[in-house]
Amino acid sequence: MSAQISAKQVGELRAQTGAGLMDCKKALTEANGDLEAAATILRKKGVASADKKSGRATSEGLVDSYIHLGGKVGVLIEVNCETDFVAKNDDFKAFVKDISLHIAALNPVAISREEVPAELVEKEREVAASQAEGKPAQAVQKIIEGKLNKYFAGVCLLDQPFVKDGDKTVQDVLTETIAKLGENMKIKRFVRFAIGEE
């Protein structure tokens, strides 16, 4: 027997996740009224939905700026989406502003692991290998991979813990926004300026 789903429960789940009314009702029904389980169901569906959209072209979007600390740090960013309609959407604009603020605060080197300069990765690999010296051979590779993953989490925008919610990465927030707005999105490029930095 399935639990009765109230409008209040649907409203709470919608406020928590930003998903549509019918999606919230279906998820609550599937979860027998359990709000946390329903939120998890919606997250999984959102990730699957975002994955399906990843191949679609992103030829619209927004260029935005963020200035912080009384003009001491500034970020200029381009985030692309599929349509002009979404580019003008307040949720999309808020996402772009949040990512700008994140870049100002955490100063990533690149958007993704693939964009980190090879010489920086190789230098990190050498440091990790020297720290793993004397360890059992089978452990050395795992130690190096672990240290590289930690390095990427510090310098790659998509791998960094999101400045407004450390339990999520920037990639998680991007995926949730894609699922919520129903279009593919891509953080195309950014530049961060800080007084006194080269």
Automatic annotation (TrEMBL):
Q: Which domain of life is it from?
A: Bacteria
One annotated GO molecular function is: translation elongation factor activity
**Residues annotated as region Involved in Mg(2+) ion dislocation from EF-Tu?**
83-86
Q: Which CDD domains match?
A: UBA_EF-Ts (cd14275)
Q: Indicate where this protein is primarily found.
A: cytoplasm
Return the GO cellular component terms, semicolon-separated: cytoplasm
* Residues annotated as domain Translation elongation factor EFTs/EF1B dimerisation: 95-197
Q: Which UniProt keywords apply?
A: Cytoplasm, Elongation factor, Protein biosynthesis
* Pfam families recorded: EF_TS
Q: Where in the cell is it found?
A: Cytoplasm
Regarding protein family, the annotation reads:
Belongs to the EF-Ts family.
* Role of this protein: Associates with the EF-Tu.GDP complex and induces the exchange of GDP to GTP. It remains bound to the aminoacyl-tRNA.EF-Tu.GTP complex up to the GTP hydrolysis stage on the ribosome.
Protein's name according to its UniProt entry: Elongation factor Ts
- Species of provenance: Pelagicoccus mobilis
